[in-house]
Amino acid sequence: MPLSAPGSVIAARRDPAWLGRLGLGLTSLVLLWPLLVATEFKPWLLLDADALRVTGRFVDSFFPPALGADFLLLLARETWRTLAIATAGVTLALLLALPLTLLATRALSVSALTGRMAALPYAVRQAVRLLLIVLRSMPELVWALVFVRVVGLGPASGVLAIALTYGGMLGKVYAEILESGDAQVTQTLLRNGAGRLQAFAYGLLPQNAAELTSYTVYRWECAIRSSVVLGFVGAGGLGQQMDSSMKMFAGGEVATMLLVFVALVALADRLSAALRRALG
What we know:
By secondary structure, the protein is mainly alpha-helical. It contains 11 helices and no strands.
């Protein structure tokens, strides 16, 4: 018995699923390799002497960050404009997403209480889901290019672009969050004559409020980043100012704006955590 003890210990330490995991890893590598070839992914080029020299000059231009009074005043104004674009865009996205969410959520369907949704409600639900797909499949940058031609350069095009794309994203995720929760209370309310809004407010919303709030704040954080990107196509805000600074090779100004981006994302993260604690 003692002679077989070392072998038993070795067998116990061996991962019984190692062969399957090794096969899965090799299969993933085989499938991934054509994708890397198609995208011309060659990370070793970053270590080339010329590439390192260009990168070094670019990073070196960031120091010291620009801290002039006039520039900081301009930066504060553009930061406020960026926050305004993101907040207004997400607010409009919420106004668009909430009614679409109520229509797309199966748990709020009265006809689905019997087990099979009626033909007309089912068709409406599928049409709403298709609309959500169309809205979120168009990147906000594409929407911004369209609205720049319609309403001209400025924050309005950025607000509308964020509203449409994020409306589709919020509506889709909200519906999935609501459908993943416990629908027993909601179904009881519907069976006793409550309306769709009442069932949502007293059934689904209380148990999913923290998750819905956290995702909404996360989308607001994403909207801040999106509004910066949209600035490069004329939507105003920090992105447009960064585009101007980069064209003028003002690396110090770019570095200061990047620090502001980090601060804005950290602010959104703290806000999300505080709201989750308050709702938890």
